[in-house]
Amino acid sequence: MIPKYYQIIHPLLELFLKENQSRKIAAEKLRHRVDMSNAELEEKLSSGMLVFDNRVGWAFTNLFKAEYIELTEQKAVYRVTNLGKEALKNSKQKNIKIDAKYLEENSLNFLKNWKASNGKKKDISIADNQNDVDFDLEEELDRVEKDFDSDLLNKIKELSWQKFEDLCADLLEEMGYGVASKREIRSGDGGIDGEIYEDELGLRGKIYIQAKKWDNNNVQPKDIKEFLFNVGGNKGVFITTSDFSQKARDEAVNYKDGKVALINYSELIKLCKKYQILCKKQTIYIYKIKE
What we know:
Helix content is 48%, strand content 12%. It has helices spanning 5-18, 23-31, 38-42, 51-65, 82-94, 100-106, 110-118, 132-157, 161-174, 221-231, 246-253, 265-274; strands at residues 21-22, 69-71, 77-80, 183-185, 194-197, 206-212, 235-240, 259-263.
């Protein structure tokens, strides 16, 4: 008999303790660990997808919603999280299996993550093959968004430093901070890359911008200290395509003379998508049969 997706969750999570997994590779490995006839192995849904592969995919999605696995930098490849490791340790100690019910009762964000993506939690008692289209779409959207975020970040990193500073100013203006006609881009000024006025007359003051288009080097405390010195009690935004070290973040948090905000690569991508900087939103309509 082909196992239900919730029966696959536990052995699938165990695979992640050994190495990262893609859906396709995990399905292949699990085929050798379950007792199924050749006919069952080849059984397909009306969509043409193998039933077993579909159920492995459902198990992936449930583990992802429980935050027991997460996407890696590789396309469509997942790794186990600390929460996933703790769940396996807990199940071993209590001699129980991790299934959909376990995820619902023990994962803090499981139901919240379902609601965030679907508006409501799918009924886990429904037979697997009744939700094939929903599952395939859900999985594909997760994958597409991850790929897009990576592509957008790479596109930003390919910009010249002048265009990157323009992008940062454009973003702040779209967010409602600053006026395009009152913008200055500066260079060689020891810590400030741009200034934007908050209104046409400049009565509400300036916002100072520091833009660092870095690949791997995290912003360090000395970079923040230099920036804060140049901000001089005013408002400032430090934007980078890398990240901030914890000590650099602490330096900004402890700054009392003015107001500063830090935007790292992940926040930059989120904001660029929200305000459609270097990208545009596309709407796709999905139709479902009324019940």
